[in-house]
Amino acid sequence: MLSRAAWSLMLRKGGRGRREMHSPEAPARGEGKMPPYANWYAQRSYPMPEEPFCTELSAEQQALKEKEKGSWTQLSHAEKVALYRLQYHQTFAEMNRRSNEWKTVMGCVFFFCGFTALLIWWQRVYVYPPKPITLTDEWKAQQLQRMLDMKVNPVHGLASHWDYEKKEWKK
Amino acid sequence: MARLSHQKCTPDFHDKYGNAVLAGRTTFCIAVWTYVATQIGIEWTLSPVGRVIPKEWRD
């Protein structure tokens, strides 16, 4: 099904993020854990993960890490951002962003509710017995007249809603 | 704030199809339930008050 293929693709992409070049696990390690079970995963309630996001660093990145051991005032803005991106997968703004997942969820909920209606339809056609005579419209009308003649529940109930002078339901 | 635009670059499944999924399936649900509730002869035993015109029973 199209949506299932797209769903699994979305899950896989979400795990790696869009930072393929900074991938924390070596590509050879195909059985690496996916978030939220990865060691670098952080969320608002767990902001300090166990491991940095990028553990295999290129030579350039390692040089940057060496520079980080010195005074931070010597780091340019771009270098600080690069160090952040080595350490963390996402910023707080990125990890806390809203998503449209609720639309898919509610869509599936309504789909299954609608499917239930189809099951009930099938049940009505193939399982229900024939309607008893007492539930036909003519019988119900006559039954109602008989109940009104008997003045059933005249205080607050059925007969109290019927206007006996005008012979119609009270407004 | 430049980072906020990052998610929009690669819309996920919910961004692409969420509206269509929600609208289509809601319509399906409402339509089929309306049909099942009214057209196929299910007895809901609603109150006759205001709905049924009584008919003479003594022949």
Automatic annotation (TrEMBL), chain A:
Pathway it works in: Energy metabolism; oxidative phosphorylation
Lineage: Eukaryota, Metazoa, Chordata, Craniata, Vertebrata
Principal location: mitochondrion
Membrane-spanning parts: 104-122
Identification of the protein by name: Cytochrome c oxidase subunit 4
Keyword Amino-acid biosynthesis in annotation: no
InterPro entries assigned: Cyt_c_oxidase_su4, Cyt_c_oxidase_su4_fam, Cyt_c_oxidase_su4_sf
Swiss-Prot/TrEMBL keywords: Membrane, Mitochondrion, Mitochondrion inner membrane, Transmembrane, Transmembrane helix
Gene: COX4I2
Keyword Mitochondrion listed: yes
UniProtKB/TrEMBL annotation, chain B:
Superkingdom of origin organism: Eukaryota
Subcellular location: Mitochondrion inner membrane
CC annotations in GO: mitochondrial inner membrane; respiratory chain complex IV
Lineage: Eukaryota, Metazoa, Chordata, Craniata, Vertebrata
Cross-referenced Pfam families: COX7B (PF05392)
UniProt key word 4Fe-4S: no
Protein family membership: Belongs to the cytochrome c oxidase VIIb family.
Organism: Callithrix jacchus (White-tufted-ear marmoset)
Protein name (record): Cytochrome c oxidase subunit 7B, mitochondrial
